[in-house]
Amino acid sequence: MKFFQFNINTKVDEFAASLADDFIKAYSLETDKPTRKDEKKLAKINTSLSNKIHSFKAENKLGIYKKARVGNKFMWALREHGIEKEFAEDITKKLFLKLNE
Which residues contact 78 (CB under 8 A, 6 or more apart)? Predict the structure, then answer.
């Protein structure tokens, strides 16, 4: 049973890392203040991430702790790539909303 739990956590960690990588590859701010173009880019990325989240949720059962694990890994991956704290927290909150739909 422990091995099965480890396997699920590994899948959750890999999923969170892939979401963060996709976000970082698709989004890069050229200035400190987001422009209208950046907002359109964020909406497009949001749609893409939503689709990935829904397909992952369909294949895997995510309880509250696994959702928290996805959010935590996602946020720290963003922070490690230099995304400022407030922005990373805002994006992570939106991720949580998608995870809970």
Answer: 20, 23, 24, 87, 88, 91, 92
22, 15 contact by CB (below 8 A): no
CA-based nearest residue to 84, from 18, 13, 21, 29: 29
pTM of the model: 0.80
40/62 Cα distance (integer angstroms)? 30
pLDDT by residue (tens digit) across 59-77? 988 889 999 999 999 999 9
Residue 54 lies inside a defined structural domain of this protein: yes
CA distances 16 to 26, 31, 66, 68, 70, Å, are 15, 26, 10, 10, 5
> Domain span at residue 64?
13-18+36-99
Residue 8 lies in a domain: no
Count of the separate structural domains present in the chain: 1
